[in-house]
Amino acid sequence: MGPQIFLVVVLAATIGCRQQPSTILKDSPEQVLARLNNVGHAVDASLGGGKVRYLGFEVMPEGALPGDQVTVLHYWYANGPLEAPYRVFVHGLVQGAMGWVDHGDHMPVPSPDQWPVNLVVRDEHVLRLPERLPADAVELRVGLYLGNDRLPVDDARKHDGTNRIRAGKFSVSGEPLPLPSYYAPRLSVAPKLDGKIEDAEWGGAPWIEEFKKSRGDGSSSLKTRARLAWDPDHLYLAFEAEDPDIQAPQKKRDDPVYQHEALEIFVDPKGTGDYVELQASPRAVLFDAAFTGGPRRNMQVEFDARYEVGVATNGTIDDPQDRDVGWSTEWAIDVASLPGGEKLGTDSLWRINLFRIAKDRIGGRQVVDESAWSPPLMGDFHNLERFGLLRFTEHVGDATR
Q: What are the structural domains of the chain?
């Protein structure tokens, strides 16, 4: 049985052509939640100290094609009046990435401060899917906002740390970008950390031959490759980076090397959202930070991992008058110094990603090239959903996958 319509709010004189008037339902919140459990996405999150409940949403149609429009029906319930004219925000994420689906921010009619108390409000709006859609699902993050402030979500388990309710995912007919895997061989002798990457020292560890642009739309314009290996106490990592204009003005540990050129590894040893980022510059200046509870949450800049990086450069650093060839690095990361890090074995499985920030001075301006082993699908590297899989083997495997 569908929802019972109690009153259709029609305020044609006060609405724009895009925003449909809301529908007030006779159904109880429990009836709506039961229905959404069967044909939609039930959430039941309270906001503003219990003043408002977000019950969930439906999408029509499920499985839409790239370029299509989808209609989203949100269900709200006001336990008490809101003091201000909050608006609804709707953010669509693709494999954890923002920027693919236009925001569905809108002012419902009537506005939330005019919602009738103790009645369910069904709010309708339209989202347009992009022509290129690298996913088979779109995740919605939903809430209420006024200016730059979001109405707090009462239960921390229901939101993402920024008062965006994790509403759920609906299916689309895009083409997901698969997550890569790498099979790292075990080393009996640690490589010499001089940045020269002698093949004999790396036990035949296969190269990751291609870094892709951050949005996943092709290869980086500058060649970057990487390889990994391990022993029970260390993760070993090597990068080779083509670079016609090597830049590294930072000189001290934890200087913001990411503002210029850097090679980076992000590591989530347990796959729980507690992770670290480790960076190195062409001058072997290191930057690291730890995060707990999800992307960019609870950043600890005082965190110091135990890792060493050797660098070899073919060119001159910070000299824009000549043309450089590139630089390479070799890393040894003490596993025990990482949150959640334990002795490595063939049963270990880590979530990681590898990144490069490159900058070249061309025509009097800085041209930035950001690339990754597993593209985060946005400019922000902190997309944990796009971390690849790192597996540990006793011997060299047949290939990276």
A: 5-171 (2.70.50), 181-393 (2.60.40.1190)
